[in-house]
Automatic annotation (TrEMBL):
Protein name (record): DinB-like domain-containing protein
Domain spans labelled DinB-like: 19-174
InterPro entries (UniProt xref): DinB-like, DinB/YfiT-like
Length: 187
């Protein structure tokens, strides 16, 4: 797969997630945004806060990796390591299997405000810039430490794809919470 096509897809998906969050959540009340379908499930804001916690780690890690590997001799295709394949398989939105998140990335029962939405949108802008910058990087370079075990590293291209797929997964989760709330209100 050509990296330009993949990077363009990642950019398009990121812009789409930005627009979805603005149009789907921005007009909701804080009470609705914090609505939880069940005590052990996440609210819409908790879904976004989970992504914010990942972005606080991965955006700087990606920025560093891209900057250090933008020598002009860049590899134009994204190749996948076993870790990259496994990570992507786990977070793809089509994979409906629930996965337990590490404790410090679990926002369950957090007191969240509209600042969570604002931070998410800021992270999306940063990610769009990282994707633009990645055009000049060696996407096959193993340079992005995995958040929960930093001795393991993802390749730049697969790390970008992982971040975007993970965001897609949890924005879809937040949309399902919104839909459940609307169904309860209609009943």
């Amino acid at each position: 797969m050509r990296s330009m096509t993949t990077l363009e897809q990642l950019s398009q998906t990121t812009r789409s997630l930005y627009e979805t969050v603005v149009h789907s959540f921005d007009s909701l009340s804080l009470v609705d945004l914090n609505h939880k379908p069940a005590s052990d499930s996440w609210s819409m804001l908790e879904c976004l806060e989970h992504l914010n916690r990942y972005s606080r780690y991965y955006n700087p890690a990606l920025a560093k990796a891209i900057a250090q590997n933008s020598t002009g001799n860049y590899v134009q295709s994204i190749t996948y390591s076993w870790l990259g394949k496994k990570s992507l398989e786990m977070v793809r939105p089509q994979n409906m299997k629930k996965h337990k998140t590490v404790k410090h990335m679990n926002p369950n029962n957090s007191q969240l405000t509209r600042a969570t939405l604002k931070e998410f949108l800021q992270h999306q802008q940063e990610l769009l810039q990282l994707i633009r910058d990645a055009v000049k990087a060696d996407l096959s370079e193993k340079a992005v430490p995995v958040e929960f075990f930093q001795l393991l590293k993802l390749r730049i291209g697969e790390a970008l794809e992982f971040v975007v797929a993970h965001q897609e997964r949890h924005v879809q989760q937040a949309l399902r919470v919104k839909q459940q709330l609307a169904q309860q209100a209609a009943a």
